[in-house]
Each structure stands twice: as structure tokens, then as C-alpha cells.
From TrEMBL:
Residues 242-288 form the PAS domain. Gene3D superfamilies: 3.30.70.270, EAL domain, PAS domain. It comes from Candidatus Marinarcus aquaticus. Residues 541-795 form the EAL domain. Pfam families: EAL (PF00563), GGDEF (PF00990), PAS_9 (PF13426). It catalyses: 3',3'-c-di-GMP + H2O = 5'-phosphoguanylyl(3'->5')guanosine + H(+). Residues 399-532 form the GGDEF domain. This is EAL domain-containing protein. GO terms for biological process: cellular response to nitric oxide. SUPFAM superfamilies: EAL domain-like (SSF141868), Nucleotide cyclase (SSF55073), PYP-like sensor domain (PAS domain) (SSF55785). Signal peptide: none annotated.
Length: 796
């Protein structure tokens, strides 16, 4: 008989929920009734559980919290809703949602339903939510009716810099601001499974970044929605732009580029390759670059190239190749190996430029270095080399040769009275007459001004020398017809034999020089053979040397300074220190009277130290007084440059004064460098590393190759005054000066022109972009006091 009373008028079997009736007995709950739904869901028979206590049916019930809930309702009489999970006999997690109701007396009714499926779905949704929230892409849910954003993940918040709440107040077109509202809606209404388009998202700070948007229509709780997945493509775009820029650069650079496989098959070339060689891409792809071979290089040359590529991964150098037209041309080639990710060679990339113009400049400089531009004869540098060779050859063959040194008589008077054009043409015609006399085996040279030399190679008899000398005197003094003028000139000649009277070139030159001066002094239009009694100059040498030693101890050495002008800014930017000797009896003595003696006597080094100290001290004082940054250029002699103590002395002086190293410039001559190229390069690099500038003085008298010039760390080239004086009316000088400036500019070297004496000189040099000018047009060399006054006035 049923003892409990339910709130319902019908049987618990008629309820759709699972129902169980418990009776509270001895602090436990006995199951006294259960409906059909509960039996079916649990898979039980009624007889098997009726009368059993809940702690028997569920041994671990107290762990679920259900037992405490039943007891709470029993005591309070109030309903309780409760859900719990447990593991059944098959160890499968099971969830129940229950309602507990107190009935009459000690009876409790438990109504419940199985919610395991729902809990499983919730778990899956939670997991999916974690994945979505941690996606690297932006994810948005958009309402299909009003186009509001109803959800966004963390990446969306991070990228556009809005909070979750702020984003839910936005529409998609307020983020993708470059897409109008109408266009956005139109895209969404396109009847496709999903749509993809590229645009830009705008961040909260107003900045933009590139994105790709993928939108798909879905249903959530039977309501139409759009899910938008947004990829940040800004890095991809930047890479594409970089690739596009690289391609644009390769397509437009002036250097040719060729890419080959590791077995030297061309796979690509750029337009510059076609422009330089004449070969089009379709003609070269698949070919070996050797089809351009000129035939000028040996097998050993190419063997060394490949060895360098295999061992170092690169090679560079000058190489001659052949264009499509058959023309052979020089190029500077750089080859580098491209490796794959496994460090294995995969491609070769060759970059080259046509250096024909550089070679032409080099040839111009070679002519400039070894040949007189006016007459075309060998110049002094070339002469000294040839003389040294002739002396050594005659020593080996036990024969005698002769040196003839000619100096035109009264040439200066003709040059000054009739003008430089007439004077130059006279020199040219004298040179031509001498060429008719000299044999092919002889060397005819113009060593400067109106001085010529002829090296008569041995063996040669004394009688033959007399005949040649007389013929020279006769031919030179025959009349010249230049620019409507009939001109007469004679020459004085000194002759010395070698190696009989000298085995060193300087001794031989000195002997010929002494003999020539004897001829001039005795009777012009004559020749003299060297005699050892010609020692007047030797005595003079000894007197000057003695006085010079006293001068170094008595502070008789002083400096004058000649300004270097920036003609574009009209400013003095630098000065050249020029030595003078304040002789107690002779007064001011110029360097041409004592420098060579100082060099020969070994006094040049102590004198050089005095000059360095005075120049740096005085210019430091000048800069402090004027609050300026004037640079001082100091000339170094050959012996100074080769002195081991030079570097130590200069660096010590800079530190002790102290002196701003950036305001110090050292001037050296071309011939000085070429005496020992490797030493010169090493020493110059050490000076430049400290901040000292290097300039090459009297440029145009000693370089054999541009290759050397490119190796020297020089800042300035000084064009010799002999090339500047006639640039306004001499085409050769114009060509030489413009070529030197152009060449220097290409190498990143500044140019200083010496001997600027007229406004026309300055105009020509400025027209050709010469950097600095120096000469009497601005100022002669002056002492420190007058230099200061000049700078103050000129720089105003």
C-alpha cells in the first residue's frame, strides 16, 4: 500500500521524468518506489533495487554531493535543484540534473533527467572556444540581419587594439574602413559558399595593416550569421614589395648581372647585360658564359678563378670579354657563390661593368705619368728609369754610353716676350729636330721646362758623341717660323759618360748638369764634357750644408703659408706650409736653394720635424684665435717618408700639443710612393686610420697604373701648376686637367689645382668641378700674421 503522497493526482509512472521515492530511515535513505522511465534509463529491474538503501545502490554517493542534498531537503523541507556527475559500472562519465522535493512524513521524491549528452557538447564547445580564442587569425561573428559584430576572439582585439566590448559596438566596415558600407553588404549578399577579398584594417590608433578576409554564412541556433576569418598579410605584402623592389633594382642597375647553375649554365641575365654585351636573354639562357671569351687570358688565369670560387666562394678581377659585335672590351667582374640551406653551392651570380672608360683614363694617366703632354717625349720619370736601365746594361756589357743634357739659351726671354703659345710651339719644334738626330736605340726626353736629354746607348765612340753634339747645336740654332715670327735660339749642352764617370743615375745626371752649366757659363751655344774639376757646385753644396746645420740649431727655419680656396663658397679652408730659411747674411732663402742639399746631406729629417712642429703649433694658434677649422698641409720628402721614426714623431706631436688630427694633411709626391709601393700603402693606411688626410702632390708625374691609385687611401690629388697655367688656351692641358678631375671624381677623390693665377683659371676649374684652388690669384705664400689678416678679409 502506497504510504507517500505526491503533489500529482496521477501515478509517478505517468511522469516523463525519471522519478525515485526515498524514505529516511536511520540517517540513510531507502528506495521504496521508482517509475518506469528511471528503470529504463538505468537498465534495472524494480525488484532488484526496491528496499535497498541509496548508499548500497551508490557506494560513493557521498562523493557526488547527492547525499548531502537529500539530507538538506529532508531537514529544511525546501525544494532543491542539483546536478552531479558520476561513473557507472562501465566507467563512463554520466551526468544527472535533479529536483528534490520533501513529501509527507519521512518521504523524499527525486525527479531527474540524464544530461550527459548536453555536458559533452558543452565540453566540446568550451574546447572549441579555447582554440578560437587562441587562433593567430582574427575571428568575428557578424549578425546577418543588422550586420553587428556579436563575437570576436582575442587576436582580433589584439590586432585592432579595441576591447571586446568596444568591438561589439562596431560594424565590419568601421574596421575595414576602405570598404564602403554598401560595398560590404553587397559582397555579403553574393550567393557563394564563402567570399575572399583583400583590404586593410584600421587600428584604434589610426594606423593600417594589410589583411585577407574570408567570410562564410552559417547558422547558430537556427539564426543566420556570418563568420569572418581575417589573416594579417602585412608581412607577406612587405616581402612582396621587397621582392618587387629587388627585381626593379636588378632590372635598372647599370651593372650587368648574370646567374648560372653550379655547372655554369646561364639561367638569367638583366637588361644591363644585354646593353653591355648585345646578347639578349633568349640567346644566353642555357649557354656557358665562356661564349664571351676574348682569347686574351691563359688557361692558368681561368684555373685560378675557379680555384678561388671553389675555396673562397668568390672571385673578382679585371677580365677581357667579347661583345656580340666581336668587339673586345674590359670589364670588372665579381662572382659570388649562392648556397642552399644545406650549405651546398647552388648558383653563381656574376656582376660586371664595362670599364672601357676607366682603361682610357688609365692610358691617359700613363701618358701623363711617363710622357710630356706638350712634345710627346718621355718625361723626367721615364727618363730616369731609362737612364738607370742604360747604366746597368753598359755595366753588364762592359761598354760605355753617354748622357747629353740640353738647356735652351734665353728661352725664358722668348717665352715672356712672345707669349706661352709661341714658347710651347718652339719647344715642340725643337723636340722634332732632336728626334731627327737621335737613333731608334737612343732615348730622347724632355725632363722639364726647356731641358732635354738624350741617352746614347752603348757601345759608342767618343768621336761619334762629338758628331752628334755638333749636329744638335747646328740644327737647333736654325731659324724657326712660328705664328708669323722668325725666332732664333741656341742650346747649351753637358755630356757625361757612364758607367765610366758614374754608376748611379743621380750621379750621372749631376755630372751632365755640371757640364751643361759650365757650357752656359763659358760660352752659350756650346757643349762641354764633364770633368772632375767641375766642383764649384760641390763647394757650394758644402757651404750650404754647413750653414744649414747652424740654421737648424739657431731657429732660422720658418714657414710661410699659401691658402687653399673653396671657390664655390669663397672661403679659405686649408693652407699649405712652405719652408723658408731666414739666413743671417742672405736674408730670406727659398727652398729650391737648400732642400735638395738638405735631402742629400741627411738634414731633411731634423728639418722635417721642425717644420711639422711649427706648422701644427702655428695653425693651432691661428684656429684658436679665429675660432676656425683651417686644415694645414705639410709636404713630406722621400727620406722623411721612409724614416721609421716618422709615424711615432707625428703621433707623439699630435698628442703633446695637442692638435686636432682631422686638420692635418700630409702631402707626398707620386715618385715617392712608387719607390716602395707596399710600404707607402701600409704607412698611408696607418695615418688615415688615425684621421690624417693624404694628398698626392704634383699629380701627373709618376703613376704607372690606375690599379695603384685605387689602392691608395688618398683624399686629394693636386694637379701640378704646369698643367694649370695654360688651361685657358692649350687644348692638351684642358684635356689633361678635365680627365684628372673626372677620374678623381669617379674614385671619390677631391682635386686641388695649384698655380691658379687668373680669374679664367678659376672659372675653368669651377666649370669642371675642381674642389679647391691654390695660387697667386688668391695669395702668394705669406707668414702667419699676414695669413690671419688675409683669412679675416677673404672669409667675410
Amino acid at each position: 500500500m502506497q504510504r507517500y503522497i505526491t503533489p500529482y493526482s496521477f501515478s509517478i509512472d505517468d511522469l516523463s521524468l525519471n522519478v525515485v521515492i526515498y524514505e529516511h530511515i536511520n540517517d540513510d535513505f531507502k528506495l521504496i518506489d521508482i517509475n518506469k522511465n528511471a528503470l529504463r534509463d538505468e537498465g534495472l529491474e524494480k525488484e532488484s533495487i526496491i528496499g535497498h538503501y541509496i548508499t548500497e545502490i551508490f557506494p560513493n554517493i557521498k562523493e557526488f554531493g547527492l547525499f548531502d542534498a537529500l539530507f538538506e531537503v529532508y531537514q529544511s523541507g525546501e525544494k532543491k535543484y542539483f546536478s552531479f556527475g558520476y561513473y557507472n559500472n562501465h566507467f563512463i562519465s554520466s551526468w544527472r540534473e535533479i529536483e528534490i522535493i520533501k513529501l509527507n512524513d519521512d518521504f523524499i521524491m527525486v525527479m531527474y533527467k540524464n544530461i550527459s549528452a548536453r555536458k559533452s557538447m558543452e565540453h566540446k564547445l568550451t574546447s572549441l572556444g579555447i582554440i578560437v580564442d587562441n587562433s593567430f587569425n582574427e575571428i568575428y561573428i557578424i549578425n546577418a540581419k543588422n550586420y553587428t559584430i556579436t563575437y570576436c576572439n582575442k587576436q582580433a582585439q589584439q590586432n585592432i587594439q579595441y576591447s571586446y566590448e568596444e568591438i561589439l559596438n562596431l560594424h565590419p566596415w568601421q574596421i575595414a574602413t576602405q570598404v564602403r558600407q554598401e560595398d560590404f553588404k553587397k559582397r555579403l549578399k553574393i550567393n557563394k559558399k564563402f567570399i575572399i577579398f583583400e583590404t586593410q584594417h584600421q587600428r584604434k590608433d589610426g594606423s593600417y595593416y594589410d589583411v585577407e578576409i574570408r567570410i562564410q554564412k552559417i547558422k547558430i541556433d537556427k539564426e543566420a550569421q556570418y563568420i569572418a576569418i581575417v589573416l594579417d598579410t602585412s608581412h607577406k605584402k612587405a616581402m612582396e614589395e621587397q621582392l618587387s623592389l629587388s627585381k626593379e633594382i636588378i632590372e635598372n642597375v647599370s651593372e650587368a648581372i648574370v646567374v648560372t647553375t653550379i655547372d655554369a649554365r646561364i639561367i638569367d641575365i638583366n637588361p644591363a647585360y644585354t646593353r653591355i654585351t648585345g646578347f639578349k636573354k633568349e640567346q644566353m639562357v642555357g649557354k656557358n658564359p665562356s661564349v664571351l671569351k676574348s682569347g686574351r687570358h691563359s688557361k692558368e688565369f681561368y684555373k685560378e678563378m675557379w680555384e678561388s670560387l671553389h675555396t673562397k666562394g668568390s672571385w673578382s678581377g679585371e677580365i677581357w670579354d667579347r661583345k656580340k659585335t666581336g668587339e673586345i672590351f674590359p670589364k670588372m667582374l665579381y662572382i659570388n657563390t649562392i648556397y642552399d640551406r644545406y650549405k651546398q653551392p647552388k648558383y653563381y651570380v656574376g656582376i660586371f661593368q664595362d670599364i672601357t672608360h676607366i682603361k682610357e683614363n688609365e692610358e691617359t694617366l700613363r701618358r701623363l705619368a711617363f710622357y710630356d703632354p706638350l712634345t710627346g717625349l718621355a718625361n723626367r720619370t721615364n727618363f730616369e728609369s731609362r737612364l738607370e736601365h742604360a747604366i746597368n746594361l753598359n755595366i753588364r756589357n762592359n761598354t760605355s754610353g753617354a748622357l747629353l743634357l740640353l738647356d735652351l739659351d734665353n728661352f725664358k726671354m722668348i717665352n715672356d716676350s712672345l707669349g706661352h703659345l709661341v714658347g710651347d710651339e718652339l719647344l715642340v719644334q725643337v723636340a722634332k729636330r732632336l728626334e731627327q738626330i737621335a737613333r731608334k736605340s737612343d732615348s730622347l726626353c724632355r725632363i722639364g721646362g726647356d731641358e732635354f736629354t738624350i741617352i746614347l746607348s752603348g757601345p759608342i765612340e767618343l768621336e761619334r758623341i762629338h758628331l752628334i753634339a755638333k749636329r744638335i747645336l747646328k740644327n737647333v740654332k736654325e731659324p724657326y717660323h712660328i705664328m708669323g715670327q722668325e725666332i732664333f735660339i741656341t742650346t747649351s749642352m753637358g755630356i757625361t759618360l757612364f758607367p765610366d764617370e758614374g754608376t748611379h743615375k743621380l750621379d750621372v745626371i749631376k755630372n751632365a748638369d755640371l757640364a751643361m752649366y759650365q757650357a752656359k757659363n763659358d760660352k752659350k751655344d756650346s757643349y762641354k764634357f764633364f770633368k772632375y774639376e767641375m766642383n764649384d757646385r760641390t763647394l757650394n753644396f758644402l757651404r750650404v750644408e754647413s750653414d744649414l746645420r747652424k740654421a737648424l740649431n739657431n731657429d732660422e727655419i720658418l714657414l710661410h703659408y699659401q691658402p687653399k680656396i673653396d671657390p664655390y663658397r669663397k672661403k679659405v679652408v686649408s693652407v699649405e706650409a712652405l719652408v723658408r730659411w731666414n739666413h743671417p747674411k742672405k736674408g730670406l732663402v727659398y727652398p729650391d736653394e737648400f732642400l735638395s742639399i738638405a735631402e742629400s746631406s741627411g738634414l731633411i729629417n731634423p728639418m722635417g720635424e721642425i717644420i711639422l712642429h711649427k706648422a701644427m703649433s702655428e695653425i693651432k694658434q691661428l684656429n684658436e684665435e679665429l675660432k676656425s677649422q683651417i686644415t694645414v698641409a705639410i709636404n713630406l720628402s722621400t727620406k722623411q717618408f721612409t724614416d721609421r721614426n716618422l709615424k711615432k714623431y707625428i703621433f707623439g706631436l699630435i698628442k703633446s700639443l695637442p692638435f686636432d688630427v682631422n686638420l692635418l694633411e700630409l702631402e707626398i709626391t707620386e715618385s715617392l710612393i712608387m719607390d716602395n709601393v707596399e710600404h707607402a700603402i701600409e704607412l698611408m693606411h696607418q695615418f688615415v686610420k688615425k684621421g690624417i688626410s693624404i694628398s698626392i702632390d704634383d699629380f701627373g708625374t709618376g703613376y704607372s697604373s690606375l690599379n695603384y691609385l685605387k689602392k691608395f687611401p688618398i683624399k686629394y690629388l693636386k694637379i701640378d701648376r704646369s698643367f694649370v697655367k695654360d688651361i685657358t688656351n692649350d687644348e692638351d692641358d684642358k684635356a689633361i686637367v678635365s680627365a684628372v678631375i673626372s677620374m678623381a671624381k669617379n674614385l671619390g677623390i677631391e682635386v686641388i689645382a695649384e698655380g691658379v693665377e687668373t680669374k679664367e683659371h678659376e672659372a675653368f676649374l669651377m666649370q669642371h668641378e675642381c674642389n679647391l684652388c691654390q695660387g697667386y690669384y688668391y695669395s702668394k705664400p705669406v707668414d702667419l700674421k699676414r695669413l690671419k689678416a688675409f683669412i679675416l678679409e677673404y672669409n667675410q
